[in-house]
Write a structure and sequence with these properties.
The complex is a heterodimer of chains A (about 400) and B (about 140).
Chain A: H1 10-18, E1 24-26, H2 29-37, H3 39-45, E2 48-50, E3 53-56, E4 61-65, E5 77-80, E6 83-85, E7 93-97, H4 119-127, E8 132-137, E9 148-153, E10 160-168, E11 175-177, E12 184-186, E13 189-191, E14 197-200, E15 219-220, E16 223-226, E17 229-236, E18 259-264, E19 273-278, E20 282-290, E21 292-294, H5 298-304, E22 312-317, H6 321-324, E23 331-334, H7 335-340, E24 342-345, E25 348-354, H8 358-373, E26 384-385
Parallel strand pairs in A: 1-2, 11-22, 14-25
Antiparallel strand pairs in A: 2-21, 3-20, 4-7, 4-10, 5-6, 5-8, 8-9, 10-18, 12-13, 15-26, 16-17, 16-20, 17-18, 19-20, 22-23, 24-25
Chain B: E1 2-10, H1 19-27, E2 30-37, E3 44-52, H2 54-66, E4 70-74, E5 76-80, E6 100-103, E7 108-111, H3 121-125, E8 131-135
Helix pairs in contact in B: 1-2
The chains are: A alpha+beta (about 400), B alpha+beta (about 140).
């Protein structure tokens, strides 16, 4: 059992939130507080640190139930605005994936494909309140005789709509460059030849899993800001890999932890769920996601005070190494450098380009902070922490046994 | 759909040919005349908006040039839809004139229209389709 100077519980913090007395700051604001007051005092005075990220997250989608029709249908093939949804579920349940392109999209036949409309765009249109054209086909059964349904639906008319994202919120990610001699179009954006630009896509010191690197507070049941509404961490994300090499400060040096999240789509907003087209790659969904981290003890305050200069992203060549899956890393770069606009790659000055919006990530963290301050959002205590949370990690600080 | 404002100069030799008719018939392009000064046996001038499928548009333009018409593409500008732009910064990777750049430390994406050369590279790469080609009627 760890021996901390500060010991707070979720219940205590939630009581303060209900009374409107909780002290809440963002993951950028906590940095200075810890610097000034020290970790223990920061943990004593601050109750919750809010984080945020706003980035394309391809492993996203929505579970939609479009309601039973008369006569009933057991849909086997379904399209929403001509984007195919997976219908291999019960009668009128479908799963619409964010990267699914429209049925008649020319894809990469005219390279680089524009992927103007796909699953992510349908999700954004639904959340924006727009009517979406639904077509369902079935082979017909004795109990479900209907073979075709065609109608316009809005999000409000759907009996259920749940955003369900199998892998979001990557803990760290690659910085992408292209060492080949031609421009390439990737999920990391356009990469000009001979390392013309270096693209990165996390919010750095504001990003959720950078602030809780050992998943001490984030687990199954954590209540989060998701797409402008309320969501939950429901499981470790796919490819969750806590065993990735870490720096001395405990922060993974490459993509490591991930989260599976879900929430009521009907309460979300089109400002924080944006359908996107990645030239030459495909469609996706940009997701606004924020996680509150309770300062239960000084160790958590220590982790939340992490700064961009302590966070390292691996530099990967998407011209050769990524498509060949060689696993080669060209080096590491700090988020301070990435956010500065240029970085050094073997003596060459390279333009750095963000793909995630820090402006909107800050908005997410700020909004979540206000919800908690107003007592509208309570912390969810995880029923189980994520794999990797049991790792013993000694924070190199005196008078602490963690 | 692609639209552009064009200034067409017809040399004397082609003034009597049904060139605009061919644009409509062979390339399925729509046109909207804003000004026309055509006199038989003299040089002609037409200002018009031409719109259609990007591929048809390119072919139509090629036809015009081959027919001997001098084509100037004017009054084309790139604008940003502030509602759609979520300030990521992807466009700054391709903008050749640095009209799109990142303001630090806010990390906001700024757009300086005065520095924009209307190359349209950003229109293609913007994930949110926030960069749009517009026609500047005042410039005609």
């Amino acid at each position: 059992m760890a021996n901390y100077q500060v010991n707070k519980t979720y219940q205590e913090i939630n009581e303060k939130i209900k009374k409107g007395q909780a002290v809440v700051v963002t993951a950028e604001e906590i940095i200075d507080i810890v610097r000034r007051k020290g970790e223990a005092e920061a943990a004593r005075t601050v109750d919750v640190v809010t984080t945020g990220t706003f980035s394309p997250m391809c492993s996203s989608g929505a579970i939609l139930n479009f309601g039973h029709t008369k006569p009933p249908i057991k849909a086997s093939r379904v399209w929403l605005n001509n984007v195919p949804a997976y219908a291999g579920l019960a009668a009128v349940d479908v799963y619409l994936g964010a990267t699914e392109p429209a049925g008649d999209d020319p894809l990469n036949k005219v390279y680089p494909g524009e992927f103007k409309y796909g699953g992510g765009h349908v999700i954004q249109d639904l959340v924006a309140g727009k009517a979406v054209h639904l077509v369902a086909e079935a082979y017909g059964t004795d109990c479900y005789p209907n073979k075709r349904v065609e109608k316009d639906v809005t999000l409000g008319q759907l009996p259920n709509a749940v955003l369900f994202n199998p892998r979001n919120c990557y803990q760290n990610y690659n910085c992408a460059v292209n060492l080949s001699n031609r421009t390439i179009y990737t999920y990391m954006g356009p990469l000009r030849p001979r390392a013309g630009n270096a693209n990165f896509c996390t919010a750095g010191q504001l990003s959720p899993l950078f602030n809780d690197p050992y998943y001490r507070t984030i687990g199954i049941g954590t209540r989060i800001f998701l797409g402008g509404g309320v969501g939950y961490v429901c499981f470790p994300g796919t490819q969750h890999n806590p065993g990735k090499p870490r720096g001395e400060n405990g922060i993974p040096l490459g993509p490591a932890g991930t989260l599976m999240v879900m929430g009521d789509l009907q309460k979300m907003s089109a400002r924080y769920l944006v359908g996107v087209s990645l030239l030459g790659y495909g469609c996706s969904l940009t997701v606004g996601l924020g996680i509150p981290i309770p300062l239960l003890n000084e160790e958590i305050a220590h982790f939340c005070a992490v700064t961009d200069d302590q966070l390292l992203a691996p530099v990967v060549d998407y011209g050769h190494d990524y498509p060949e899956a060689t696993g080669r890393i060209l080096g590491h770069v700090t988020y301070t450098q990435l956010k500065s606009g240029k970085m050094d790659l073997d003596g060459q000055e390279v333009l750095t380009v963000p793909l995630s919006s820090l402006v909107r990530a800050r908005e997410v963290a700020q909004l979540l902070k206000e919800w908690i301050q107003k007592g509208q959002f309570l912390l969810g205590e995880p029923v189980e922490l994520l794999p990797g949370s049991d790792a013993i990690h000694c924070v190199p600080t005196a008078s602490r046994d963690s | 759909m692609h639209a552009e404002m064009l200034v067409l100069q017809f040399p004397r030799e082609v003034v009597d040919q049904p060139i605009i008719y061919r644009l409509v018939k062979d390339f399925s392009l729509e046109f909207n005349l804003l000004r026309a000064a055509i006199n038989p046996q003299q040089e002609g001038l037409i200002v018009m908006e031409l719109r259609g499928h990007p591929q048809d548009f390119r072919r139509g333009l090629k036809y015009l040039r081959k027919a001997g018409v001098k084509v100037r593409q004017v009054a084309r500008e790139v604008g940003r839809n502030e509602e759609s732009c979520y300030q990521c910064g992807t466009c700054t990777a391709v903008c050749p004139t640095r009209a799109l750049y990142i303001e630090r430390p806010a990390m906001a994406v700024a757009f300086d229209a005065a520095r924009c050369s209307a190359c349209e590279l950003c229109c293609q790469v913007c994930p949110a389709h926030a960069m749009e080609v517009r026609l500047n009627r005042e410039a005609v």
